[in-house]
Design brief:
Elements lengths: L2 H13 L4 E3 H8 L3 H13 L3 E5 L2 E4 L15 H9 L2 E3 L1 H7 L10 E5 L7 E4 L2 E7 L9 E5 L2 E5 L2 H10 L7 H13 L5 H11 L2 H14 L4 H9 L6 E2 L9 E3 L4 E3 L10
Parallel strand pairs: 5-7, 10-12
Antiparallel strand pairs: 1-3, 2-3, 4-5, 6-7, 8-9, 11-12
Helix pairs in contact: 1-2, 2-3, 5-6, 6-7, 6-8, 6-9, 9-10
Length: 267
């Protein structure tokens, strides 16, 4: 490597976030216009000093990396933040983080307002499942430390409400119910905060599922059930939109219970 290239790589490594550097970050670190910085990054990638993650984003390879060695980003959460911003880690991945599930998913679930071409993507050895939402729905996520980096993630309550809004984020309504059971047993359980979160981000469908599942799983939480009734919207929805089977229509919730063994204790 030329000495000038070595100096450039050192600057990029210092400016990188979790080993990742974007065109904008490189332009600032190298004091170059964005176009020239993009050309420089592409040149370094062709010579195997960087590895292209996706358009405009590169992984700085260690100087001791062997040629042909697979390049893997250290932390998928940081990679998601850099690749899909604005975004937060949510759904089943957030549930794993908060100890609300023991189920292991291979992919990292990312809720993003960025333009995406596919629902699933593999970058630098990590698999991502992507759910696109309006930018306004990205606001309000918590932040946690991942080594020296801070990454946005839905908190326990936001994870539940997001999953009630779209059960696919948790891998289906059965897993949503499991997450809610674990939340109900947790010392961090805060039903008041859960209701406040629902008032902020829940849809009519989420309120229906919340009221129904609370009735099933937390029968003592009558105030929560009554709050959900206040927010009922018109029309009927399926308990799990990803399950294509018929079920009983529960008129008081406007809910087609198309997943068995989740019926409430009272008719």
């Amino acid at each position: 490597m030329k000495e000038t290239d070595r100096a450039v790589i050192a600057k990029l490594a210092r400016a990188s976030r979790g080993g990742l550097v974007s065109v904008a970050v490189a332009a600032a670190a190298l004091d170059l216009p964005a176009r020239r910085a993009a050309v420089k990054l592409a040149s370094l990638a062709r010579r195997n000093w960087l590895r292209r993650a996706r358009r405009g984003l590169y992984l700085v390879l260690p100087l001791e990396a062997e040629p042909g060695q697979p390049a893997v980003a250290e932390d998928p959460w940081v990679l998601a933040r850099e690749a899909f911003s604005p975004c937060y880690i949510g759904g089943w991945t957030a549930a794993e983080h908060w100890g609300l599930t023991e189920q292991i998913f291979r992919s990292t679930l990312v809720v993003t307002a960025a333009t995406i071409r596919a629902r699933s993507e593999e970058i630098l050895g990590h698999q991502f499942r992507l759910f696109r939402v309006p930018r306004a729905r990205i606001r309000g996520a918590a932040e946690v430390w991942r080594g020296p980096e801070r990454v946005a993630v839905s908190d326990r309550e936001r994870t539940i409400i997001d999953s009630l809004r779209n059960p696919e984020l948790a891998g289906g309504v059965r897993h949503v119910a499991d997450i809610m059971r674990e939340y109900g047993r947790s010392r961090e359980r805060d039903v008041t905060k859960l209701v406040a979160t629902a008032r902020t981000v829940a849809s009519g469908a989420a309120w229906k599922r919340l009221g129904y599942l609370a009735e099933c799983l937390w029968p003592a939480e009558t105030a929560l059930v009554e709050e959900a009734r206040k927010h009922l919207s018109a029309g009927n929805i399926r308990l799990d939109p990803g399950v294509h089977r018929t079920g009983q229509l529960l008129r008081r919730w406007g809910l087609v219970v198309n997943v068995p063994d989740l019926e409430p204790t009272t008719a």
